[in-house]
Amino acid sequence: MATTTREPNQPKKKLPLFPLISLLSFTSIFFLLSQFRNTSSSSSSIKAFSSIHNFQIDHRRGSCDYSDGIWIYDESRVSRYDSSCKEIFKGWNCVRGNKANGVEVAKWRWKPNGCSDLDQFDPLRFLQTHTHTSIGFVGDSLNRNMFVSLFCTLRSSISDGQVKKWRPAGADRGFTFLTYNLTIAYHRTNLLARYDGRLVRMVVP
């Protein structure tokens, strides 16, 4: 008669709790620190934005929308740069192209409705605020005009020898303001969206 023998029941092995608790604690601390960092970063960005532009909001009228306003003609307004800026495309240089209203265009300024007037752009303050920064303009001629306008405005506030023209990787042209280590660059692309039937697929250059 065959017999079978059973081994006595062995106690189940318990997983050590210390590594598990340590892992959970580390994860919790990491999560809390990341949330604190994001909050601090957002707060710092808002403060920096406010200090740069010095926007004055009329709290009696609630939030202020600077995109809602009208263009007004200001005879006293002075252009931040003139037609001698070499980066202005020849076909878009209204003054040198003898356009009838070439000079008058620069005298129009934006006036928000129900808000304080926008402060004049301060190129030197912009350079000091955006040290060790890279700014890129991507798009067609509209973006190129914005790029050229910013460059000419900043260029007019510094002396010769403080700007280096070069071609950053992936860009058509760029300039570095050496004293402030600020680089602005332009990359031309006609379309940022590709149409494929009914599907619109975004393409990042």
UniProtKB/TrEMBL annotation:
<dbReference type="GO" id="GO:0016020">
    <property type="term" value="C:membrane"/>
</dbReference>
<dbReference type="InterPro" id="IPR026057">
    <property type="entry name" value="TBL_C"/>
</dbReference>
<dbReference type="InterPro" id="IPR025846">
    <property type="entry name" value="TBL_N"/>
</dbReference>
<keyword id="KW-1133">Transmembrane helix</keyword>
<feature type="domain" description="Trichome birefringence-like N-terminal">
    <location>
        <begin position="63"/>
        <end position="116"/>
    </location>
</feature>
<dbReference type="GO" id="GO:0016413">
    <property type="term" value="F:O-acetyltransferase activity"/>
</dbReference>
<protein>
    <submittedName>
        <fullName>Variant 2, Protein trichome birefringence-like 13</fullName>
    </submittedName>
</protein>
<feature type="domain" description="Trichome birefringence-like C-terminal">
    <location>
        <begin position="119"/>
        <end position="196"/>
    </location>
</feature>
<feature type="transmembrane region" description="Helical">
    <location>
        <begin position="15"/>
        <end position="33"/>
    </location>
</feature>
<keyword id="KW-0735">Signal-anchor</keyword>
<keyword id="KW-0812">Transmembrane</keyword>
<dbReference type="GO" id="GO:0005794">
    <property type="term" value="C:Golgi apparatus"/>
</dbReference>
<dbReference type="InterPro" id="IPR029962">
    <property type="entry name" value="TBL"/>
</dbReference>
<dbReference type="Pfam" id="PF14416">
    <property type="entry name" value="PMR5N"/>
</dbReference>
<dbReference type="Pfam" id="PF13839">
    <property type="entry name" value="PC-Esterase"/>
</dbReference>
<comment type="similarity">
    <text>Belongs to the PC-esterase family. TBL subfamily.</text>
</comment>
<keyword id="KW-0472">Membrane</keyword>
